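Collaborator request log, item 7. Partner lab (contact: R.S.) asked for a structural prediction of Malonic semialdehyde reductase to inform their binding assays.
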Amino acid sequence: MSNPIADQIFSQARSHNGWLDRAVSDEQLHGLYEQMKWGPTSMNCSPARFVFLRTSEAKEKLKPALMPGNVDKTMSAPVVVIVGYDTSFYDRLPELFPHNPAARMLFEGEGKQAVAHATAFRNGTLQGAYLMAAARAMGLDCAPMSGFSEAAVDQLFFGGTTVKSNFLCGLGYGDAAKLHPRLPRLAFDQACTLA
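Returned to partner:
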């Protein structure tokens, strides 16, 4: 049962290691965010924070935090997104979840840091996935990666804030000639249980 939109986002999409010399515009990035922001998060908490590195200078700032195997594909990507999450996301709940003014109290205060962090990380990760799905739906290719120093990225880009880095994602138009062979995935019976 094939679906052309789902195929574009999932089964036909690939994680790219090389890029075509084709720019991604600021307008595309704005459009990308305008689409992905509608993906659901618990209590509409929307903890993800995105830093779009578009310039050589911005990517050079990131370079020391990268593992060696990720340097080339990151530096050559038209855009690199730092997908982060705000551990104090609950400060925005009165605006984002106004029909329950007490929701903020679930996360704020003594002894609630663990649940706040888990909520921020979980929902920020979901939003990072929405970003990639929206990018692929727009015809962009992605290169998600976690081979970097989170502590270094947090210091370089989020110092003095409550935002933490989650993962990086190159965005642009992938060079199919630089793709590795497609890797297997688990079969339904290996990954799923019907209860």
